[in-house]
Design goal:
heterodimer, A: alpha/beta, Rossmann fold, about 30% helix, globular, B: about 280 residues, alpha/beta, nine-stranded mixed β-sheet, two-stranded antiparallel ribbon, 7 helices, 15 strands
Chain lengths: ~375, ~280
């Protein structure tokens, strides 16, 4: 809403400014990852961030902590174990019945209090609906910098966090620093960072912290949570195989060809942004900068030209296969295997060939 | 019911080009639009006003040319438009932006009557941060409702509001008390076309233009570059890959032959996929 937020444009005057961290921030140490824990599950992005946080903490030679906020002390203890196995040295735990469901007010207080008490230099959160809701409030309360939706994190020569994010819909990348304030905060999209392997039995210590808030202090009430039905859930971000379509499919009816192939492969399906705008697919199936980031083992893009916005969302795939009639389409610049063909004609043949191959295997086994 | 809708004028991202040599955004000739997500917020505010009465004030921070976006909002039916423009705001990051906007909203409340709801889009299409809404809420001490997909109920007497918000894995139904800040999700309503009467009214209506002092902002150190804790150190284009896709031969092949060749190439490249596909196709 601003004129030109500098998360988009370089600030020549300020960029070269010498870093002078005020004295009050000099005791800020350690790397924290906010662990998103809801409905009995840790969001996978939190474990991905522990893997990334581990690298940053090792570079800085400080400890890595997970922050667990929730309603039940024992459940959080179980979740803490997963944090240790994924790289955390310690876990800060805030357990209170009023924290049973996510609400901005008590979660903002819990995380803000922890930061002010234990003074971390870096705080990472997943760029989920919860993470973004919480991060914006906490950073504003602490009056510190927050970099949204990062795709790369590093520590620079001056021990400062260098957070890289796409800007202008992914057409450019920019690297953002929070020089004179602490903590340095960032949200990171799910699936951008690799999941660290778990080390069974690895343990750490738990530090409990109180909330000092009662239900009467909290104005917002959760009336109900309506979980998505399994059939509604697009598991795109975590699918091993994804088939997607673009405008090259020519019509909404032809999108069925993508679903057919996905069905035979046991894959999830999605599409590029124009398809959401045309109403061929729902927004939760959009792949790309403003949609989902995916990291499948196999990605088949049918009739997708491969605009930069799309590329940002699929680059983490192990193997990208492109079907497009235009040999000059940008998707052939980042796919590993391509075929210059009409997806509407090739998809049925591909579906049939896979079906036959996979059913033969099934009979044989 | 007095609602304030924050909108941003953004470059139409579909038409943005990057300079091939300098890696800078080529803004020249790129049309500007109202951030598309903000239109869902505007429509939600107009719908509420039509139902409950009251006024809708549209607020935009930006350069003088952002007045175009405000006029557009007036043609959709907004009652009042305020442009917040000052060189002190240049280079604001999200923290500085939320400071300026929240100050202006407070001033709007003093000038035109208390504000019950502040609406924004869920994020902008150029910055994509989704941080300014929560920032405004925190600075004005409003209850914060982000990613709202539906306003399920609002009671002007008890000042209670119930909304559905998109959460991870489902929908949260929340009840809270006005004043609130709401960020609206996309696709939540059908954007109205303004009526002829609205268009005529908009053409006559003035856009109120405020600088920092007009908005009651005295702490200029909290604005613009100086008020921004984040610093952009580097802007660059994504690295160009040198590898090109291996293209499957198509000449003289029918669909079935092309499909077989494609599958062979996939499994040749990654033989382990064979087992993955068998497992997945069997439904495991």
């Amino acid at each position: 809403m601003s004129d030109a937020p500098r998360q988009q444009a370089p600030a020549a005057g300020r960029a070269g400014m010498k870093k002078e961290l005020p004295d009050r921030f000099k005791s800020y140490k350690h790397v924290w990852v906010f662990i998103e824990y809801e409905h009995g599950h840790i969001h996978p992005v939190s474990l991905e961030l522990l893997g990334e946080g581990r690298k940053l903490a090792d570079k800085l030679q400080v400890e890595l902590a997970g922050v667990l906020i929730g309603g039940d002390v024992d459940e959080l203890g179980e979740a803490a174990r997963a944090c240790f196995e994924h790289g955390a040295d310690l876990v800060y735990r805030v357990a209170d019945p009023v924290l049973a469901h996510y609400r901005n007010e008590p979660y903002t207080k819990a995380l803000t209090d922890l930061v002010n008490t234990y003074k971390p230099e870096i705080v990472l959160l997943g760029a989920t609906t919860l993470g973004r809701d919480l991060a914006g409030s906490v950073a504003t309360t602490l009056l510190t910098g927050l970099t949204a939706d990062c795709t790369e994190l590093a520590i620079d020569d001056e021990r400062s966090l260098a957070a890289t994010r796409p800007t202008f819909g992914g057409s450019l990348l920019c690297t953002i620093h929070t020089l004179n304030f602490r903590p340095q905060m960032a949200t990171i999209r799910p699936r951008v960072m690799a999941m660290p392997p778990a080390v069974p039995g690895r343990s750490g210590r738990i530090v409990d912290h109180g909330l000092d808030m009662t239900e009467l202090d909290i104005i917002t009430k959760v009336l109900q949570f309506i979980p998505d039905r399994d059939t509604d859930k697009a598991q795109l971000a975590y699918a091993d195989v994804v088939v997607a379509g673009g405008l090259g499919l020519k019509s909404a009816e032809n999108f069925q060809l993508v679903k057919d192939l996905a069905g035979v492969l046991g894959a999830d399906y999605g599409g590029s942004r124009p398809l959401v705008q045309k109403g061929w697919i729902t927004a939760d199936r959009q792949i790309g900068q403003t949609g989902k980031t995916i990291r499948p083992k196999l990605y088949i893009a049918a009739g997708i030209s491969g605009a930069i916005q799309h590329r940002v969302g699929v680059e983490g795939a192990d193997l990208i296969v492109a079907i497009n009639t235009d040999p000059k389409a940008p998707i052939f610049d980042f796919a590993q295997i391509g075929i210059v063909a009409n997806a509407v004609e090739l998809l049925p043949a591909l579906t049939a060939a896979f079906r036959q191959r996979l059913s033969v295997h099934r009979l044989a086994s | 019911m007095h609602t304030v809708v924050c909108i941003k004028q953004v470059p139409d991202s579909a038409q943005i080009r990057v300079h091939p040599v300098h890696n800078t955004i080529m803004r020249q000739g790129v049309p500007t639009i109202i951030n598309p997500y903000d239109l869902f917020a505007l429509e939600a505010a107009l719908t509420l006003r039509d139902k409950l009465g009251g006024t809708v004030t549209v607020l935009c921070m930006g350069p003088p040319m952002a007045e175009d976006s405000l006029r557009k909002a007036l043609t959709f039916g907004a009652d009042r438009a305020v442009l917040l423009t000052d060189r002190y705001f240049a280079g604001s990051d999200t923290l500085a932006t939320s400071f300026a906007l929240s100050s202006a909203i407070a001033k709007i409340g003093e000038t035109f009557g208390p504000v019950d709801i502040v609406f924004t889009g869920k994020q902008t299409i150029d910055g994509d941060t989704a941080q300014v809404g929560p920032g405004i809420a925190k600075r004005l001490d409003l209850n914060q409702l982000t990613y709202v997909s539906r306003i399920a109920g609002i009671d002007a007497d008890t000042r209670e509001i119930t909304v559905e918000r998109r959460a991870e894995g489902g929908v949260q139904v929340l009840k809270t008390v006005l004043p609130v800040l709401i960020t609206m999700l996309e696709g939540t309503n059908e954007i109205r076309r303004g009526s002829l009467a609205d268009a005529l009214r908009a053409a006559r209506a003035g856009v109120t233009t405020w600088n920092a002092a007009d908005a009651g902002i005295t702490e200029l150190l909290k604005c613009g570059l100086r008020g921004s804790p984040t610093v952009v150190k580097k802007v660059f284009a994504p690295s160009a890959r040198t590898e090109k896709a291996v293209l499957i031969e198509t000449d003289g092949r029918n669909g079935a032959q092309m499909a077989d060749a494609l599958i062979a190439a996939i499994l040749d490249r990654n033989p382990a996929l064979d087992a993955d596909l068998r497992r997945l196709s069997a439904g495991f």
